[in-house]
Automatic annotation (TrEMBL):
<protein>
    <recommendedName>
        <fullName>LLGL scribble cell polarity complex component 2</fullName>
    </recommendedName>
</protein>
<keyword id="KW-0597">Phosphoprotein</keyword>
<dbReference type="GO" id="GO:0006887">
    <property type="term" value="P:exocytosis"/>
</dbReference>
<dbReference type="GO" id="GO:0032878">
    <property type="term" value="P:regulation of establishment or maintenance of cell polarity"/>
</dbReference>
<dbReference type="GO" id="GO:0030864">
    <property type="term" value="C:cortical actin cytoskeleton"/>
</dbReference>
<feature type="repeat" description="WD">
    <location>
        <begin position="69"/>
        <end position="110"/>
    </location>
</feature>
<dbReference type="GO" id="GO:0045159">
    <property type="term" value="F:myosin II binding"/>
</dbReference>
<dbReference type="InterPro" id="IPR015943">
    <property type="entry name" value="WD40/YVTN_repeat-like_dom_sf"/>
</dbReference>
<dbReference type="Pfam" id="PF00400">
    <property type="entry name" value="WD40"/>
</dbReference>
<keyword id="KW-0963">Cytoplasm</keyword>
<comment type="similarity">
    <text>Belongs to the WD repeat L(2)GL family.</text>
</comment>
<dbReference type="GO" id="GO:0005886">
    <property type="term" value="C:plasma membrane"/>
</dbReference>
<dbReference type="InterPro" id="IPR036322">
    <property type="entry name" value="WD40_repeat_dom_sf"/>
</dbReference>
<keyword id="KW-0677">Repeat</keyword>
<feature type="domain" description="Lethal giant larvae homologue 2">
    <location>
        <begin position="261"/>
        <end position="359"/>
    </location>
</feature>
<feature type="repeat" description="WD">
    <location>
        <begin position="420"/>
        <end position="438"/>
    </location>
</feature>
<dbReference type="GO" id="GO:0051294">
    <property type="term" value="P:establishment of spindle orientation"/>
</dbReference>
């Protein structure tokens, strides 16, 4: 009977786990790391981005997102949508072609790879014969033209790719080298004609039906790109010497160009890699091209030039340009809403070409989270509506320079349900900014940006503005984009953030021991920020700080815009990195800790309540500071950057790499100080270990410290040496709170036997439920804690979870995490898990991330292991260190410097894309071949059949070369292949 009962209990527990817990990686927020290809489908209104890691990502209307990953570890070099279809083709740098489709399943679309294909040649043929360099998806949707490095052009049918067929010609007839095929483009008014651009400069207009060259254009410079104008009467070619030419399309070979232009002068210029011309309803056309800058003076600039009538602007982007295109009037637009979409290495920029001044359209997704390097994160769930509206209003005042036009990429339908609550993700950055993101749904939308640099005197030169452009400057540069990796002072970096969603108080702490307390204000204000110096060493002799100096604060009043405004500054001495921070807005207290100790500050009276030094006398490393070894290189880099900006010379990329290396060293030192993974068994640690006094966690609680009859406010602190301090706080009555001081008295000190670092502290009430957040009960968002039963203290160390009874602090139970595999706790947080079957049932649990990248959920209060999921690669130390949990069983971690991976452990709270993309209507207006029985598809097939039967060949003549056009004889009726030599 006992065995049966135990089995039944275990079955019930397993069933409960299935109702509460389910692990999914749901969506990736941010900007794709190392993008390498761009494409757009006008019929689907979808944007596609390929990356160097082999990922392919599709974006439509906000919330419409798809992601696929190639099995091959190869970069995506080209992406092409098949016109008026839901398929697209990707080309990898291993020369493989892959076909993808958006297949509908149970009312939702999913991105699937349905075929792959590699163009191969006969035995002994050089690889260049079939190395694909250019791809054209024909408007018929039934043909792909593949240009190769050897100068050939193959025509294949996309369904043969999905069928995994290899198209290999029987033989190769004599030919002459025309270099690689650089460009392929279709005549916009006659789909039977295509233009073929060769690297050496020759441009050929080829008729697919007549199977002959209609015209030869003998450009003399190396070709970079071609563009066939919308009326079909001209072809533009851009070249490696910074010039572009306009050629008339007609019968017979062209002897000279209609117009040749080098836009940026007679000095040597960089290549114009792409050129586009767009007509307007009235007036001259738009001409857009990338590159072409004078090589000596501005060779380091990443520019796209836009010329319209007398307006000429060189849009200066923040990083290397990958590709660009222009969105014209879509199916639902009646008038031209031209938008220039530019993909650069570090961000996506969309520019409104119809509004005066050509302003930027704010992106609802693909926002560069890493515009300054992310240094920390903080998530706040269930934001009250009032606070949400105030933050939104403050953020909208910062976005007045954006275009009023709506987001132009609107493909697909977002079928995801509305978010059940409003969530905020706050990211701290190296430049001293805190950015607020709407993390409620699939899109991580920017809401508001707070800058703390204005409180301090930094090394930044206010006159050193890269965005400034003098009147009449040539080229007419205009800085575009928000990616800025420069940090004028690394001491500004934000390390800890804590926001009270009920009171609107925010506290942020930085790299140089600075703690700012801010309050939300709807009006601009000018006020002096009062500073308090806190000596954490408490006058101990024999210690000398060898690290960076503290930031110099401005003594004059600081003008703050609407939003969060600083009113108080706590400066730790020594100015070490702040490693722990917490705020209790009901008590008006802030607690902070560094590697030297911790303190408590009353921000209502602006007084220090107490300071505790935790520094071990033998710990000399704690006196050096993590920035001491990289400060000099950062200072020299900053000086170098300013010289570069003033003189506007090159070498910028080299210095950016150096700065990134310096940032990486800083992150590595911080990780070594706090989070270095160690694989070992549990063993006692020596008190002489480095950084034993480093404060890892701080926690406010109203609980029992002196006796079981009287609860009292308290502060708990855990250190790297396995020590827990508890302080009893005495708060004056509300009417005397502004006059009488807050006092504190040390009540408890616990030393863990193995001296493992304490990474978390939680106090459970009489029902075993974690205590609510400050002001949560007052706002009727949580039940009052049970103050009648015994409270329990849960101490989370790197190696185990141990429960103590209060107030006697006697050990009650524990759960050891560390075993032979060396797992150690890196992150821990309390979360609430709701049942997916019963809306009324939920329970609290402890979510834990280990240095192995594994996620655990531990039940409370009995600390039993519930579920275990692998999440992050154990080698990804930065990803593990960046992880942040939500209050409802979700989490975020950085998978690259610019992307958060979102995951969920809950069956009830899941945020993931749910989208549908339908096949576009097949109309004559969108496809000219649909109503023409003798269109390009049937005509091309007749030509191929005729050529295959007769094995015809002919010589094409032009000024530079003679080329042989021939057709080989593959298996007739099953494989169609046309080679242009």
């Amino acid at each position: 009977m006992k065995r049966f009962r135990r089995h039944g209990h275990e079955s019930h527990r397993d069933k409960l786990k299935q109702e509460l817990f389910q692990f999914n990686k749901t969506v990736e927020h941010g900007f794709p790391h190392q993008p390498s290809a761009l494409s757009y489908s006008p019929s689907l209104e979808l944007l596609a981005i390929g990356t160097r890691s082999g990922a392919i990502k599709l974006y439509g209307a906000p919330g419409v997102e798809f992601m696929g990953l190639h099995d091959e570890n190869a970069a995506v070099t080209q992406v092409h949508f098949l016109p008026n279809q839901v398929e697209l083709v990707t080309l990898l740098d291993d020369n493989s072609l892959h076909m993808w489709t958006l297949r509908a399943h149970q009312g939702l679309s999913e991105l699937l790879e349905i075929g792959r294909f590699t163009l191969t040649g006969p035995p002994g043929a050089p690889p260049s014969v079939t190395r694909v360099t250019a791809v054209l998806a024909h408007s018929s949707g039934e043909l792909l033209l593949l240009g190769t490095e050897g100068g050939h052009v193959f025509i294949v049918e996309p369904e043969k790719i999905s069928g995994r067929e290899k198209l290999v010609p029987d033989d190769y007839i004599g030919r002459r080298n025309l270099e690689h095929v650089e460009a392929l483009q279709e005549n916009p008014v006659n789909p039977d004609q295509v233009v073929i651009g060769y690297g050496r400069g020759l441009v050929v207009i080829w008729d697919l039906v007549k199977q002959c060259a209609l015209q030869h254009i003998p450009a003399t410079q190396q070709l970079e790109s071609v563009w066939w104008t919308e009326d079909g009467q001209h072809i533009l070619s851009s070249h490696s010497d910074g010039s572009y030419c306009r050629w008339i399309v007609g019968e017979g070979d062209v002897n000279e160009d209609e117009k040749s232009d080098i836009p940026y002068g007679h000095f040597p210029c960089k290549a114009i890699s792409k050129i586009v011309q767009l007509p307007t309803e009235k007036g001259p056309p738009f001409v857009l091209f990338s590159g072409g800058m004078p090589r000596a003076s501005y060779g380091d600039r990443h520019c796209i030039t836009v010329i319209h009538s007398k307006t000429h602007v060189a849009l200066d982007f923040t990083s290397r340009i990958i590709d660009f295109f222009v969105i014209r009037d879509g199916p639902q637009h009646k008038e031209h809403d031209d938008a220039l979409v530019v993909l650069v290495e570090e961000e996506l920029v969309v520019i409104d070409l119809q509004t005066d001044g050509w302003p930027v359209i704010q992106t609802p997704y693909l926002v560069p989270l890493h515009s300054s390097a992310i240094t920390c994160s903080h998530h706040v769930s269930a934001i009250p509506l009032k606070l949400w509206e105030r933050v939104t209003a403050a953020g909208s005042l910062q976005k007045t320079h954006y275009s009023k036009k709506p987001w132009p990429i609107t493909g697909g339908q977002n079928l995801a349900p509305d978010p059940p609550q409003r969530d905020l993700l706050l990211t701290g950055h190296e430049d001293g900014t805190v950015r607020f993101w709407d993390a409620s749904g699939v899109c991580l939308n920017p809401m508001y940006k707070l800058s703390t640099a204005g409180v301090f005197h930094t090394d930044a030169d206010p006159n050193d503005n890269m965005n400034s452009g003098s009147e009449g400057e040539w080229p007419p540069f205009r800085k575009v984009g928000c990616f800025d990796p420069y940090s004028d002072d690394p001491r500004l970096g934000i390390q800890k953030i804590h926001l009270c969603k009920y009171s609107g108080y925010l506290t942020v702490a930085g790299t140089a021991g600075q703690i700012l307390v801010l309050e939300l204000n709807d009006e601009a204000a000018e006020q002096t920020v009062e500073a308090k110096i806190v000596d954490l060493l408490q006058g101990q002799e024999g210690f000398r700080w060898k690290g960076h100096t503290r930031l110099d604060m401005r003594e004059e009043p600081v003008l703050s815009p609407p939003g969060f405004q600083p009113f108080c500054l706590v400066q730790c001495q020594p100015p070490a990195v702040v490693t722990a921070l917490t705020l209790h807005s009901e008590w008006k207290l802030v607690a902070f800790g560094t590697s030297h100790g911790f303190g408590l500050f009353d921000y209502q009276q602006k007084n220090t309540v107490f300071v505790k030094c935790t520094l071990n006398p033998s710990d000399q490393l704690a006196m050096e500071g993590p920035l001491s070894r990289v400060k000099s290189i950062k200072k020299s880099l900053r000086q170098s950057f300013r010289r570069i900006r003033r003189s506007r010379v090159s070498l910028r990329k080299h210095h950016i790499n150096n700065l990134q290396e310096a940032n990486a060293r800083l992150e590595a030192e911080l990780a070594e100080m706090e989070l270095a993974p160690v694989q070992r068994k549990i063993e006692a640690r020596s008190s002489d270990d480095s950084f034993t006094g480093l404060v890892r966690t701080l926690y406010f609680a109203d609980t029992f410290l002196s006796d079981s009859a009287h609860n009292t406010p308290s502060l708990w602190a855990g250190t790297n040496g396995g020590c827990v301090f508890a302080y009893m706080l005495r708060l004056p009555n509300v009417e005397h709170r502004a006059d009488e001081p807050v006092t504190a008295q040390q009540a408890k000190e616990i030393q863990l036997m193995h001296r493992a670092p304490v990474v978390g502290i939680v106090i459970l009430d009489g029902h075993g439920v974690p205590l609510p957040e400050p002001l949560e009960v007052a706002h009727d968002l949580a039940r009052s804690p049970d103050m009648h039963g015994l409270h329990h203290l849960l101490v989370i160390s790197e190696e185990q979870f141990k429960v103590f009874t209060l107030p006697k602090v006697s050990a009650k139970m524990k759960l050891k995490l560390t075993a032979l595999d060396g797992s150690r706790v890196r992150r821990a947080g309390v979360a609430w898990f709701g049942s997916n079957r019963s809306e009324d049932y939920c329970e609290s649990g402890l979510v834990v991330l280990t240095n192995q990248g594994d996620l655990h959920v531990v039940s409370l209060p009995n600390v039993k292991m519930q579920v275990h999921y692998p999440c992050i690669r154990r080698e990804d130390v930065s990803g593990i260190a960046s992880c942040v949990f939500t209050k409802h069983g979700q989490g975020f971690y950085l998978i690259s410097p610019s992307e958060f991976e979102r995951f969920s452990l809950s069956t009830r709270h899941v945020v993931e894309p749910r989208s549908l993309v339908e096949v576009p209507l097949y109309s004559a207006s969108s496809n000219q071949c649909s109503s023409q029985p003798d269109g390009v598809t049937s005509a091309a097939r007749r030509v191929m059949e005729h050529a295959l039967l007769n094995d015809e060949s002919e010589y094409l003549r032009d000024r530079c070369n003679k080329a042989i056009v021939s057709c080989t004889r593959p298996l007739f009726g099953s494989k169609k292949l046309l080679q242009l030599y």
